[in-house]
Every structure is written in C-alpha cells, then in structure tokens.
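Dissemination and training. As part of the outreach component of the grant, students in the summer workshop were shown how a complex can be specified as a set of sequence lines and then modelled as a single object. The example used during the hands-on session is reproduced here so that future cohorts can follow it. Participants entered these lines:
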Amino acid sequence: MSPQDPLPKEVLARIGVEKTRRYEVTARDVRRFAQAIGAPDPAVSSNGSLVAPALFCQVFMFEDVPAEELPADGSPNELDVPVPARRTVGGGSDFEVLGLVHSGDVMTVRSKLKDVITKEGKSGTLYLVVVETSFNNQLGEPVARETATYVKRT
Amino acid sequence: MTQVPEARAFELRVTPTRTQLFTFGAITWNRHKIHFDRAHAEAEGFSDVVVQRGLLGNFLARAVASWAGPNGRLERLQWKVNQSAFPDHELRCQGEVTKVSEETGTSIIDCALRILDPEGAHVASGEARVRFR
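and obtained this result:
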C-alpha cells in the first residue's frame, strides 16, 4: 500500500465513530498522576478537593478493556486500525486545557478515530492515526480536548 | 496589569526512570509493551523501553508551570515527538517566549518548546499558550 492508494474500507468505516464512557475523578487518581509525572503534590481547593495537573485527563484516554482484547503488542485499542503495519509509536499531541479538573468530578469522555493519513517515510509507508478525545465534567462543561497522533509502520 | 515572568527562556531537567514509565503507564492504563518490556522494545528496533508520548508532554507542561508560577494557566500545549527517548537519560525541556499579547485584562504568552536528549538531539518540539491573570 502506498500513500496514493485509498484507505481500505474497513479503516474508513471506523473514522468518526464515537465511543463514550464516564469516570469519577478520585483523589487517589489525581495524587498518583502527579507522582507519575514527577509534579509537586496537587493543590487543595477551598472545598478540600484536589486540583489535577494540566494534562490529567490523559488518565481517561484509553478504554479499560481486558488485556486479551488488546492487539498483540499491547497498544491501546483506539489505535487498532486495520492497516498493513505492525509497530506503533506516539507521534504528537494538541492538548487544550479548557477548565480545571478536581477530585470528585465525573468526567464524560468522548473518543473517536478522526483520521488515518498515509505518508512515505524513510523505511516505507507510515500511517498517522489521529484520535480525538474530549472531556466534559458533570456540569457538561468542556475541561479538555486532545487530538493525539500515533505513527504506525511496518 | 497582570504579573508575568521576567524570564524569556526557561529549562527543566528531568531523568525519566523505568519506575516512572511503569507508573505513568499504569495510571493512564497504557499497556503498550514498548513502554515496559525491554525485550519487546528491542525486537521492535529500540535500544530500550520507550518514554511515552504523554509523559513527554507532561515534562513540557511541568517546565511551563515552573516558569509561569501560580498566576499562569496553561491553555494549550502542542508537541511532536521527533525521536524516541529512553529511561536514565537526562532530558532538557526548554522554552522560549515567542509572543506576548493582551486580552481583556489578561496577558497571553506563547512559547516555543523543545526537549533535548544528552547528545543535544531534538526528542520533541512544541508550543504552549499560557494565560496570566
């Protein structure tokens, strides 16, 4: 398959299909995320809730499916598009921080495959898998949106 | 008049560890083997397990937050991974102010960002927008 070839219909059928899930933001999640990124202890707001680091919503980026439902390399389901490539790496991100996230919030996460772009790389055809994820709190307010790009190659 | 940092450039040095990659993978529920299984990573052509794209973004966010202080709020962070980074190698996360603008009583500062590995190679490049109140 070359960048000039059209994408297989199985790939096109997945583009734009949205999945929705809901999660509670726990104080433990906020503390563990801060520790994982090497940030200081999260700030405590006036009502006692913890204020999450700016990119905290990454915690909810990937669906919590059982390991046996993941591709063989363990890469997230969201990137499992049927293109002739077996290796995946993270390519980049556009992360918009639209509001603060606190422990106790309930997050609605909407995720979809936005696009698959083919490109010629040094070692053959690359497939740029673009995933868009939005995060709204329990009041319906948007708090974050990320467009992440992953690179799949043979 | 909003309080903005005097420094036009900033840097945060971090050395990701295997434990950090593991804990970041766990909290983000990212079970991609290249991030924790060295044999698998080597089979895919890497020299070691690979620092996650998301963790690199958080290093940049931390660099911006350290520079901006309590009056600054990150509104947008864009980054592109140019080459893989590996644990136990120091990364220099650098930023430089590229534009300062005013909007209804707040200051908005745009910064160019990059992450350099110990050899000076560009691991990632990006941009940030920070609003100061």
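The beta strands of chain A are 18-24, 87-97, 106-121, 124-136, 142-153. Students were then asked to discuss how this feature might be tested experimentally.
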